[in-house]
Design brief:
Helix content is 18%, strand content 34%. It is an alpha+beta fold and 451 residues long. Strands 7, 8, 9, 11, 12, 13, 15 and 16 form an 8-stranded antiparallel β-sheet that branches.
């Protein structure tokens, strides 16, 4: 049994979806905010709330500790911090939400990158008593690097500064100026008390000087840009369908999910990296032939010519092709415990294509505190963000991450055990890298990797 207001499937289908992430320093009240948001929007299961109330009583607390709704790991509950990304799904009458509750500690920067990589909005919490601190600037920088289009500054614990407007105004001014300098397109500041519930779901009676939306109101009304159709069409091939049955003796289709744009029957297309050209002869969606398909639909594309197409190839309009390159310049966040070093052999996974590669150069490491560049670090360790140059064995059709978060992103993988090493964003970052040094040549006795 739940305490949520029941909504029909038709109603939910008509509502839009917002993916958002939360971030904040340790003890800024981030988990409490998420818990309050879920509780006050009636999105908590009854048994979950009873478990939280029981755990809170055992701790000697008179009121439920709503942070326990999101801190699921035992270590998180014991230490009172968030360690891993926790995803929560809830809905109101106006919109559906996927929430990524990300850790605030600097050693979990990689977890924030994971949670915010698909977010359309980031909520950055600040303790009203402490103001903008180093970790606040880090979170703003990561949001800017990941091209998150909307950022909410939630100035929390306003109850502990007597709901003073000048305190909020000073913090909002400082953060807005910093985030804007990083290129964040939209910043909204909201004064809240997650513990008391002020301006989270219900307007605060203690801050009549604030006339803006509550956190939930803003989440429900912020424009969500799901229009991937405005971007050039990109269709990574995931699987080749060739039934060779009596019913379909000559059928050859290429299945996958459209990453961006619109595909139309009769449109001239090019298969990359081979460069072979053809025309879209047909599109099958859910077993039905259609004339048009758009992102993020999963479809099967049929071409007019019998060209060589396999998994990992990219089908794109002949008049609007991505650049093909074997020298990938990108910003990466290193997520593995083992370092990423110059000269290291890796696998690069881009959409459905995985190719061998070598890290040719690590020109700089980004210092998120002040956005300065540490030149020629030689390697990146866990949670580092830096510029890299990767040489691939085969050409890749990459868009700039600034143009497409889906076809401009990639993973670097350890070829020995399949461990994900780094998450990459192709093209320029908000702060241009300071180049210096050169990568050592690959070993001559390993011709398989020397390219």
């Amino acid at each position: 049994m739940t305490t949520t207001t029941h909504q029909s499937a038709d109603t939910l289908a008509e509502t839009t979806l917002l993916r958002f992430a939360t971030a904040g320093s340790v003890d800024d009240g981030k988990s409490t905010l998420v818990g309050r948001l879920l509780h006050d929007s009636k999105s908590v299961l009854t048994d979950q709330l009873e478990a939280v109330e029981h755990a809170s009583r055992n701790r000697g607390q008179d009121t439920p500790d709503l942070a326990l709704l999101t801190d699921g790991l035992r270590a998180e509950r014991e230490q009172g911090i968030t360690i891993d990304v926790a995803y929560r799904y809830f809905a109101t009458a106006k919109r559906r939400f996927i929430l990524a509750d990300t850790p605030g500690h600097v050693q979990y920067t990689r977890n924030m990158v994971t949670g915010a990589s698909t977010a359309e909005l980031a909520v950055v919490l600040v303790d009203a008593r402490n103001g903008v601190v180093e970790q606040t600037r880090r979170h703003a920088a990561v949001a800017a690097l990941l091209r998150v289009p909307h950022v909410v500054l939630a100035v929390n614990k306003m109850d502990l500064v007597e709901y003073a407007e000048p305190v909020f105004a000073a913090i909002a001014k400082e953060f807005t100026a910093y985030a804007a300098s990083l290129g964040v397109p939209e910043i909204t500041a909201i004064p809240i008390s997650a513990l008391a519930g002020d301006n989270v779901v219900e307007p605060s009676a203690h801050m009549d000087w604030y006339g803006g939306p509550t956190v939930l109101e803003h989440l429900e009304t912020v424009p969500v840009s799901h229009d991937l159709t405005a971007c050039p069409a990109r269709f990574p091939v995931q699987y080749v369908i060739r039934p060779q049955t009596a019913e379909h003796p000559d059928y050859r289709g290429y299945a996958g999910q459209i990453a961006s744009g619109v595909l139309r029957v009769g449109e001239p297309v090019t298969v990359l990296p081979s460069g072979r050209t053809s025309t879209v002869a047909g599109i099958d969606a859910l077993g039905v032939s259609v004339d048009t398909a758009w992102a993020p639909q999963s479809v099967t594309v049929r071409l007019a010519d019998d060209v060589d197409v396999s998994r990992g190839d990219l089908i794109a309009p002949s008049g609007d092709l991505p650049a093909s390159t074997q020298d990938v310049e990108a910003t990466v966040c290193h997520v593995a415990d083992q370092p990423l070093s110059v000269g290291q052999r890796v696998l690069l996974k881009h959409t459905t294509r995985t190719v061998k590669a070598i890290v040719k150069d690590i020109p700089s490491r980004l210092t998120l505190d002040d956005l300065s560049q540490h030149p020629v670090p030689g390697q990146l360790v866990a949670n580092d963000i830096g510029r890299v140059v990767v040489r691939t064995a085969e050409p890749l059709a990459l868009d700039a991450y600034a143009d497409s978060r889906r076809t401009g992103s990639f993973l670097l993988i350890d070829p020995a055990d399949g461990t994900t090493l780094s998450a990459g964003m192709a093209g320029a970052s908000f702060a241009e890298a300071v180049r210096g040094g050169s990568a050592p040549e690959a070993a001559e006795d390993d011709a398989e990797w020397d390219f």
